[in-house]
Specification:
Helices cover about 45% and strands about 15% of the residues. The protein has twelve helices and ten strands. Helix 4 packs parallel to helix 5, helix 6 runs antiparallel to helix 7 and helix 7 packs parallel to helix 9.
Length: about 425
């Protein structure tokens, strides 16, 4: 073991001892994603992916050695229109099916970047993206707002993709792999909004932390100031440990570290909504929910490490069992999520919609997200999931082979 590696693990162990609260010790956040950014060439993409996987597997081992569970390793390419120029549609679709098979065989998640970065980009690429997503398990996005303003052409293209995937993928499920993103910087580790437009050979890290936040908030016993101070302190300790490990990976591999997205993403057994209810003492959507959202976001953005991605709070309705249950109960709505987005990086993430939602309604919903993001210059996402054949008041039946995958009762559109 090198001196550098010993030093890293000494830091981690030291932090672990600091965090020991006896029986009340908060559970550690997990590493949701280690994402490599690769500029691929279709002529040699297999070799390029294999080189990225060497780094990703070494990074996974390093984080696990440091005491952090790693859930996924991922690869994000440059925007796919850059490397399918000159290919026929059939050739492009064959290429992406081959990339999808490689991802499945090698156990990594793949993102092919945005179909449109700017509002003057070719909307035909968005049409192609719909076909790619419908026939693979790849992830991708469209950028609907940036420093240059709101991208209304891209908003229309995004709504069209959502409708296409509702009609052309099993139960509309491939809309989970597509997002319209606004003001999201490059090198975000979370999918499907992740992208880069550089030379590649970089990596970033994203967290899962519903249970971690829940434990910290439980220990605060409803005291908002204590909750804020404790979460900022505990998250900062972990962020420093994670960055120390990243520095070792960067030195050992030669891949540049782009930062940590400490957004405490939820999962089926790690609900961020349950954590927020620990603090507010009431159901998600009640008074106090916005305060809890602000506290989490402020804690994430207070950490003095290199940050990437959203660095805020995610509230994915259909990826968090408590959020799904509260949506079914009607304790919050589209407008609630947009209100919370004023103080965090929520947007409208995996929001279930009735299957008869129109393209024009989708455009207006995405436009609201883009307008809010541009107004406050903050990253927001619209990942909207119409349920084919389902009406308001009926229950979704999305199923990805996961026993505890949340479903929800559909709310009527405003």
């Amino acid at each position: 073991m090198t001196k550098t590696l010993r030093a890293v693990f000494a830091i981690v162990l030291g932090i672990s001892s600091i965090l020991l609260w006896g029986s009340d010790a908060p559970r550690k956040p997990k590493v949701r994603a280690i994402t490599a950014f690769v500029r691929i060439d279709p002529a040699q993409y297999v070799q390029q992916v294999q080189r990225a996987l060497v780094m990703l597997r070494q990074a996974k081992a390093a984080y696990e050695k440091g005491g952090y569970e790693v859930q996924t390793v991922r690869i994000t390419t440059q925007p796919f229109p850059e490397y399918v120029r000159g290919l026929s549609k059939l050739e492009a679709l064959d290429f992406f099916r081959a990339l999808d098979k490689l991802a499945s065989d090698q156990s990594f998640l793949a993102n092919i970047g945005p179909a449109m970065l700017g509002d003057q980009d070719d909307p035909a690429m968005a049409d192609l993206l719909g076909e790619i997503l419908a026939t693979t398990k790849l992830n991708a996005s469209l950028v609907v707002a940036g420093d240059d303003g709101i991208h209304w052409n891209a908003i229309r293209a995004a709504a069209k993709i959502i409708e296409y995937l509702e009609d052309h993928s099993p139960n509309g499920s491939r809309n989970f792999g597509f997002a319209a993103t606004a003001m999201l910087p490059a090198y975000a580790p979370f999918f499907p909004g992740s992208y880069h437009n550089g030379e590649g050979h970089q990596f970033a890290v994203g967290l899962e932390g519903g249970n971690f936040v829940a434990d910290v908030f439980t220990a605060a016993h409803g005291d908002v100031r204590v909750a804020k101070e404790n979460l900022s302190r505990e998250l900062a300790e972990h962020a420093r440990a994670l960055e120390a490990i990243a520095a070792h990976i960067e030195k050992d591999s030669g891949w540049s570290y782009m930062g940590l997205d400490a957004t405490p993403a939820p999962n089926g057994d790690s609900s961020i909504a349950a954590a927020m209810e620990k603090l507010s003492g009431a159901k998600f959507g009640s008074s106090g929910t916005l305060t809890a959202a602000a506290i989490i976001t402020e804690a994430v953005r207070s950490i003095l490490v290199k940050r990437a991605g959203y660095s805020g709070l995610m509230l994915p309705v259909l990826e968090d069992p408590v959020l799904a249950e509260r949506w079914s109960e009607g304790t919050y709505s589209l407008d609630s999520l947009l209100a919370y987005s004023a103080v965090c990086g929520t947007g409208l993430d995996t929001v279930p919609l009735p299957g008869d939602v129109t393209q024009q309604q989708l455009e207006r919903i995405i436009g609201d997200v883009a307008s809010l993001a541009f107004k406050w210059h903050k990253p927001l996402t619209a990942r909207l999931i119409p349920a084919p054949g389902k009406k308001a008041g009926e229950r979704t039946d999305f199923n990805f082979g996961v026993a505890d995958f949340p479903n929800a009762t559909l709310q009527p559109l405003p």
